[in-house]
Amino acid sequence: MEPERYATQTLLPEIGYSGQKLIRASSVLILGAGAVGSHLAGILTRCGVGKIRLIDSDRVEIGNLQRQNLFDEHSVGILKVEAAAEKLLRINPGICIETVKARISSFAELLDHAAGMDVLLDASDNQKARIMLNQVALRLGIPWVHTAVAGHSGQCACFCLSGGPCYACFMPAVSENTKLSDAQSSGILNPAIGMAASLSASMALKLLLKTPPDREVLFFDAWVPEIRRMELNKDPHCRACSSR
Ligand SMILES: [Zn+2]
User: Fold this and answer.
1) How far is the CA of 73 from the centre of ligand 1 (A)?
2) Cα(203) to centroid of ligand 1, in Å?
3) What is the pLDDT of residue 179?
4) Short-list 73, 219, 43, 87, CA closest to 146
5) Does the structure show a pLDDT above 90 at 114?
6) How far is the CA of 235 from the centre of ligand 1 (A)?
7) CATH topology of domain 7-231
8) How far is the centre of ligand 1, averaged over its atoms, from the C-alpha of 1 (Å)?
9) pLDDT at 159
């Protein structure tokens, strides 16, 4: 398990040698290899997550380099999943990186890619993907970590823990057509991506270590700066999870 590579991480009482073995035996799916997705993949690769399945259909553009920290000028024009996989395996060749070059458009397709994973990570830029992730997570009984960033602020939360709230409990009115602020409309601060990915990666590691994060949403601002916590409870009338 390359003890030297993980020596400082295994010193942490929250992880230790047994926790590192758990992390090594784990698999995560990251939906999206843009700013948040590539940053998350970088963190989890360095931490030694055994298998990372990365899904994206886009190619790297010059305008991505301001915030998509895995990529450089040599990546421009290359599929993000391919550029990411090459970089991630240079960082840590001892793990498995799986790439899916596709824009997921159906529940069945996502279900197929998510089956067998330990944690699902939202690094998407649209509500349709998040609603699908929530449905897939509920169906498979897999927790997922939601991350959203706009400007210099954003939010992170873990949904679909056993008996816990789901995304629809948190956002009951949201639909596939709900428009989001994105990098093109609101701009985006690179450090906000780092903050979001760091908070969400910690949630993912806690899930992999079987010490789940609290049932709450973290609202952060990387400029002010601040982090606010809001407790989140399961909605007994939730249209997505109340029958489960
Ligand atoms: Zn719910």
Assistant:
1) 42
2) 19
3) 72
4) 219
5) yes
6) 6
7) Rossmann fold (3.40.50)
8) 38
9) 98
